[in-house]
Amino acid sequence: MAQKLLGIDLGGTTVKFGILTLDGQVQEKWAIETNILEDGKHIVPDIVASIKHHLDLYGLTKDDFVGIGMGSPGAVDRQEKTVTGAFNLNWSETQQVGSVIEAEVGIPFAIDNDANVAALGERWVGAGANNPDVVFVTLGTGVGGGVIADGNLIHGVAGAGGEIGHIIVEPENGFDCTCGNKGCLETVASATGIVRLAHQMAESYEGASPIKASLDNGESVTSKDIFEAAQANDSFANSIVDRFTFYLGLATANISNILNPDSVVIGGGVSAAGEFLRSRVEDHFKKYSFPQVRQTTQIKLAQLGNDAGIIGAASLASQFIEA
Amino acid sequence: MAQKLLGIDLGGTTVKFGILTLDGQVQEKWAIETNILEDGKHIVPDIVASIKHHLDLYGLTKDDFVGIGMGSPGAVDRQEKTVTGAFNLNWSETQQVGSVIEAEVGIPFAIDNDANVAALGERWVGAGANNPDVVFVTLGTGVGGGVIADGNLIHGVAGAGGEIGHIIVEPENGFDCTCGNKGCLETVASATGIVRLAHQMAESYEGASPIKASLDNGESVTSKDIFEAAQANDSFANSIVDRFTFYLGLATANISNILNPDSVVIGGGVSAAGEFLRSRVEDHFKKYSFPQVRQTTQIKLAQLGNDAGIIGAASLASQFIEA
């Protein structure tokens, strides 16, 4: 009897796979390199081959699985199970993904956007504790996210729901965003955004600071450098972190004033700054959230790390469990 | 066989009633005054008496009705069907509403917050055209709203979902809000908010303007006066409307960047300014919305006027239709 879920997290560098129990425990996991050569035409066959190989390896058959779920970059068509415009995979044209995997592996398949899938993972067995109302914000090179409201992942009319990184936090005089707008959250609250803020704030800062010295010397400064300096009481670095967390506190408060989720979960590479980051975002969040929201919506750190993708992907396959 | 819905819109001045078909057409409607004397203890008995009287009048019995739905001010407990802290009804303590009406009338009863209920009405048979993703923003003395995402009214963890009026649009130097925060949308984008903006902007405006003259003379100026002057090309009034619609465009864009609804529907008394208001909100919305959202989320005017409450309330009762 089918008792397992297979989750796939498709990224530009690796494809991660996980075999999970129906309650979200990872039993096995592995990864393969993503071969993006020749317009990414090897990706789907490589995934099929790797699934077949690992099912053999573990002595499993298709009958052991309720379904396969996948998170993918690009524009995902959930009905057709196709992906378009995933440029980090060299997939500019529409790719048949689900139909090929279902035909080759013989297990029902579901697919969604990678940020949405990570949100589902954190909501299911991570910081979201399976609550029906959870918002996930991921701070990496950019800012992504996913919104789960009343138990449903919110896609909106055209699938652009959850574009947390493009909430406008500086309507006047904001930085240019890759999306064509100015002042998006992503321009200031990502790994690149905090460095952008540092350069801007260095122009008017007059005290002594190793971070400011590095910037003035044209040396490379990272998000990690800035957080470490702030924790070591570099007052310039602290003022940058304060501005960074102001933007996140404002955006998470406004999301919460609209949705009153149980929690806003912060993940992604920048969230490695941990409680130092979380508590400062929370300070600003409390200033900008409606009183009843302030008392009931929590700011949390993500708990699943890189596994959020395979776990959330597996959760997509739960839809195939027969009632 | 039960083929009708009864919708009740409970307000501080009147209680409105409507008998609707299952597809949302209003067949009969009437209203009674809200008697808020003696801690509002007459309100529920008056509602019961009015329902009984009108059922007799129309030759209907409880068996003709699938259910009764009600929208109420205050904090609504949907499970217990009670209302707490509805100060415009003199209901400070928790009131038994649903249990009394169900016992007296014998029809299943559902209740929700009045702004949410109006959102459901506009979504069902109004501007929302029964789309699964619709946000309703009501511009009156304050700013309220409701969020319907993936077909569900979003309450959030503590029922504070949809607090559109408390989205922060001026994080620095905003006006004081009744909620205790500063810079909430309601402080600038309501009937009182636009007058507040007018006073602030009058201080630095140097041209000739009848509106500015009225403000400087200490005369009463209303939202309607400002919109009428702007439409008559008073450039001071136009600059106020521009600021007012900037805030609404920013807030509706950020809501839409999070949820990508089919439409954001603008209602309430201030929306009487019509297309002049809508098109200017839309101009700012387009500037601040993510490209895919800009192409797919529409800014619309509400269509149901005062009937949104009884229609949305009736829609709550649809849950009692047997499959």
UniProtKB/TrEMBL annotation, chains A, B:
GO terms for molecular function: glucokinase activity. It holds the Pfam family ROK. Its EC number is 2.7.1.2. Keywords: ATP-binding, Kinase, Nucleotide-binding, Transferase. PROSITE patterns: ROK. Coiled coil: none annotated. CDD domains: ASKHA_NBD_ROK_BsGLK-like (cd24062). Belongs to the ROK (NagC/XylR) family. This is Glucokinase.
